[in-house]
Specification:
Three copies of one chain form a homotrimer. The first copy, chain A, is α/β, with parallel strands linked by helices. The first copy, chain A, has helices at residues 14-23, 38-41, 62-67, 78-82, 84-89, 100-105, 107-116, 157-167, 209-212, 217-223, 244-261, 316-329, 333-336, 353-361; strands at 5-9, 27-33, 48-52, 71-72, 93-95, 124-125, 138-142, 151-154, 172-176, 181-190, 195-208, 229-236, 238-239, 269-277, 283-289, 337-338. In chain A, 31% of the residues lie in helices and 25% in strands. At the A-C interface, helix 1, strand 11, helix 9, helix 10 and strand 12 of A face strand 10, strand 11, helix 9, helix 10 and strand 13 of C.
Amino acid sequence: MTRPLIATLGSHSALQILRGAHDEGFACAVVAPAGKDTLYRRYPFIDEVIAIPSYDAFEALEDDLIARQALLVPHGSFVAYLGETTNQTLRAGYYGSRAVLRWEGDRDLQREWLTAADVPMPAGFATADDIGAGDWPVIVKTFGAAGGQGYFLARSRGHLDDQLAALGHDRYTIQRYIVGVTLYVHYFRSIVHDRLEILSMDRRYETNVDGLGRLPWHVQQAVEPVPSYVVVGNSPLVLRESMLEEAYRMGERVVATASDLIDPRGFWGPFCLETIITPDLRFHVIEISCRIVAGTNLFVDGSPYAALWFDEPMSTGRRIAREVREAHAAGRLGDVVTGHVPSWDAFDRTSRTDHIDRIDEAAR
Amino acid sequence: MTRPLIATLGSHSALQILRGAHDEGFACAVVAPAGKDTLYRRYPFIDEVIAIPSYDAFEALEDDLIARQALLVPHGSFVAYLGETTNQTLRAGYYGSRAVLRWEGDRDLQREWLTAADVPMPAGFATADDIGAGDWPVIVKTFGAAGGQGYFLARSRGHLDDQLAALGHDRYTIQRYIVGVTLYVHYFRSIVHDRLEILSMDRRYETNVDGLGRLPWHVQQAVEPVPSYVVVGNSPLVLRESMLEEAYRMGERVVATASDLIDPRGFWGPFCLETIITPDLRFHVIEISCRIVAGTNLFVDGSPYAALWFDEPMSTGRRIAREVREAHAAGRLGDVVTGHVPSWDAFDRTSRTDHIDRIDEAAR
Amino acid sequence: MTRPLIATLGSHSALQILRGAHDEGFACAVVAPAGKDTLYRRYPFIDEVIAIPSYDAFEALEDDLIARQALLVPHGSFVAYLGETTNQTLRAGYYGSRAVLRWEGDRDLQREWLTAADVPMPAGFATADDIGAGDWPVIVKTFGAAGGQGYFLARSRGHLDDQLAALGHDRYTIQRYIVGVTLYVHYFRSIVHDRLEILSMDRRYETNVDGLGRLPWHVQQAVEPVPSYVVVGNSPLVLRESMLEEAYRMGERVVATASDLIDPRGFWGPFCLETIITPDLRFHVIEISCRIVAGTNLFVDGSPYAALWFDEPMSTGRRIAREVREAHAAGRLGDVVTGHVPSWDAFDRTSRTDHIDRIDEAAR
């Protein structure tokens, strides 16, 4: 019996997405530009690795993906690599909303959405003149900055002006820098179960700011390292239980507001609110990611929060595949897919032991 | 067949405790003041959510809890919300010792206990005049401070005097601040197996001190953030294996001393030693928590230390339920319960697959 | 039926190694000097604890270990406790290459090996005079320093000279201190499957540098804590997926180069590259460990990376036992063992439930 096919791009959280698809009984394929395909060929659980010359060649695969009834699962690098327009116009089946793409990608619309959802955000400043005396330090985020590259910190007006002059363009936003601790909440909005689940949490591991604290002040004074915020990893966290309900409610307000503001079909699947928590126990949301974030890669083998919802290790990647499988079983695949809705026969979840057998075989 | 009932208050580590009870075949109930009950209604594995107008109304439930043969499992917020007196006088069945409550709640008695157990603690100072030249910095903990709120740091006598003057009262203790790294050890003292288990370890995630290191010294100098120690989360750790035996021995000495000093019945169930480790590989214990701590919430789906004792994922919450189940099977429930000892029939552990079925059903 | 025996020294990652051996159906024994044996007597899964007066007495056990067809699994403390010479000359069966010991133990040879493998390392300086103006800060590592003890940081020539004068000897190396974030990659080179696996990642938890960031600059200025790098624990990490292929390739180059440079038999089993990642997304490798590292102790119950290779929780300790079991089944035990190749009958993997039964029995 042919298993239905889940495919994604080779980057970001593709391993987790494909492993989750595999565990839920799907065949899985990854599309990667030449040179980036080799990582995925290492893992026997991946059924197919499709190398393309560059991301531009992705669209040429579309007819074939549609003919094979594949479902694409997007991740945080889909927009970065394929572009927002391609994400919008792809005809292939795509898990999740595409209407949110425009709201997520534009910092002003994102602020409008989150504000409408009554989600607290740090103050934003259109120009340096708008920054009040009590607003320092500020963080500057250049447009199109991804993975924290292109961010910088300023302690004062002079410090900011110097750095902006060095930048030499005006495509940036200025935010108040909140002094607190970061915590990223990984949500999953299930259409099939009509509920919001919190599946895990992390904090980003950013170079060099997460190494600065290991340098005593006098060494910092001597060598003057410039703080940078490039994300190279993640580490796991849990949240004080008394704050968990507010984390749920923020997520629910974001989902409900999306239905009002963005698209009556709403907003579903995985998303992330990226927060800073201050000593008054308040969340400050610095960003929303509208699909699976890389911090979920910590939880391929389960998480303490997913264990409150499921009796099996449930990564966000696997959660997506589970939702798709259940939507299909309920005849509701069209409710979670945008673009071409794949046509699949009934299918059984492949036993997880299949994979064990395959590995052990090599040893005989 | 009716399953025996485990109940707790809705906060702190209630989700873990109830999930553990569920996994061991108990029915589980949570009592929460209106507004805090909604979190617990989200999770299908919780059998019953009992909303009360406020914590004051808890005692009115007692007769019913006793009639239903419920067992209360206390956590770190039991004393904060119900008060020490209520914890002492509750007639309902209560897992764990109550005699330790007075010793834990009074900083002087706590120091007496830990000192008698030969557990190294940072120097404490009755007044600012007692602080020696080599004792700086110091940390001031106001009485009743919970979750790290109300702590402050002083680098010098002048700095301390200024902050104490601003505080305006004298209900605080002063401790030497140990420069090192924090590590919290989660113990479980089993009566049934007559042994001490280390189940997991964490470090607290405190706002804003765990964010300060991300600010370069010159930004700190410009904006002068005041360090605060409010606990909003936890992250996982393991300890150098060569220090693990001393971690066990400290725990054993604390347990043995409790039998001598506090109550011949002793001290059992989960507890935590909160340590700072210095470069000479020595532990400095800053506090003991005499029941489940929130750091164990990291390990709802298991921990590397629990995996050395058990073949299944074993959180501290589940470990409690396991101990209760085994004590009951051995006719020794009275050895682990204070107050009313529940009267239960024999019971089988419910298969974990029950829960899976319940979740999947919604999708059909 | 007698189970074949895996043995190790009592320290470092012995619990993980033995637990992994147990899970794969081996009997397991630990050898520990008196006083360090007690930790291992706590855990019922360990079949045998052999106490010796001191590490010097280890060699006297050899004939018996050989007669019992035991296989030794070395860990990061084997060289520290038994010495390189003993590691080289032990006649007992030993999992892994011994030819790498000399290359790992000598910082110059280690640099030659990693450089030949095209693995980027921080600049090293033979003397203080070689340090350029842009090379500060530097870190000094005294010879034989283990677990980070004996490291120190210098911000300038004057600062370095003062500290070297205080040191009073010239047995040290000087490295450029890379400002970035640390990440340690845990590899496993399988002979049986002829592949390299990444099983997990961590960062070290070092006292006091990982506590310094919690002290504001003005407190550091007042109390002048001296940074130290003593490893007392580890915390888990995942790496940005787009950097994972380069992590694999570095590991593969290290393995391939070992075959050319060190020993035609090559280099196999667990090893670790200890990296610092800079904001340009480049790895800088500060050290290689040629056997199991303590950071893998985080993953006794599985890791997100091992879950991409295996359907069961797979620690590095268990991975070793799995490889040994599969090599034996394939008649290739001699390919992964140096010294006496144990003679074992065919054996079945013991059911994991054996251990559960043993624990529950005590409660009856």
